[in-house]
Amino acid sequence: MGEGGEIYIFDMGNPVKISDLAKRMITLSGAKNVKIEYTGLRQGEKLYEELLNDMENVQPTTHDKIMIANVREYDFEEVSKQVDELIVLSNTADDLHIVSKMKAIVPEFVSTNSLFEEINNGSLVDN
């Protein structure tokens, strides 16, 4: 199916509740008296994952549950420069500026349930 370089997105079906999955895994393991404890979201955790951003979409393939992602292309030199800057910044241990730089590289990413919500608009990026 592939011609080289494609990114495939799979239709994974309906979402499964983590509690249902945990109960099923406990049953399958044969374990008895296992207590499931609900702690809520920890900082930085989220309830769902985005496979593509709003500017990207998919095209169908010959299989109805396999799609090809139409993703943006980036200039290699610019990406390489951005990554090099991020690596240098990572040595500072300045989490706020590191995440701010990451958000500048991937502007579609929005922090939720996180210390970094305050920089969702990329306001701390110096360069």
Written overview of the protein:
The chain is of the alpha+beta class and 127 residues long. 30% of the residues lie in helices and 9% in strands. The chain has a three-stranded antiparallel β-sheet, with no helix packed on it. It starts with 7 loop residues before the first strand and ends in a 22-residue tail after the last helix. The mean pLDDT is 87.
Taken in chain order, the helices and strands follow as EHEEHH
Biggest sheet character: 3 strands, antiparallel
Mean pLDDT over the residues: 87
The number of E-state strands comes to: 3
What share of residues is helical?
25-40%
- Strand proportion, as a percent range, falls in 5-15%
What is this structure's SSE topology?
Blueprint: E1 8-10, H1 18-29, E2 57-60, E3 66-70, H2 76-90, H3 95-105
Helix pairs in contact: 2-3
Which labels suit this protein?
single chain; 127 residues; alpha+beta; 3-stranded antiparallel β-sheet; 3 helices
